[in-house]
Give the backbone structure.
Amino acid sequence: MFNPTTSRFASKWLDSHEPKEYNTAMSKPHYSTPIKPMTNVMVYRNLTKRCWSIKCRTTNRVIAHADNIQMVNVRFHVSESGRQRVLRERKKYVHAGAIGDCYAFNPSDVNGEEMQVFYNPYKNSTFVDGVGNPVKTATHATLDYYGRVYVVSNAA
């Protein structure tokens, strides 16, 4: 098995897998137009490109790909029919994502407890927190380069 830290190609592999610095409200460089703040989008993890695909909700088209993205007024959506197809065929299909508005915010300005959110169609029918409680909405969400989703809910 390939171990990137001990291989003689380690430096080349690590250089190519480092997160790139992009403005969180901007798309990757191969897309010329930035994403406008407060654009209503659906964001899902693109496993082929190892990034987040950003789909505009009005045109229903992918408008950008990003390594990191910040969103507000987030709702987590899972298509039950898409989930059943994944369970039946044991293949990966796009059927879940975060719906909300793109907006770059300063995480230190957000009040509330931050938690990580997960989704696995084979274990849960919804997005869940670390304990297993369902998570439907959040006021702020940060989707990072490594595929992790962190949310803050100001329910208190």
Notes: Strands lie at 40-46, 51-56, 62-66, 69-78, 96-102, 114-117, 137-143, 149-152.
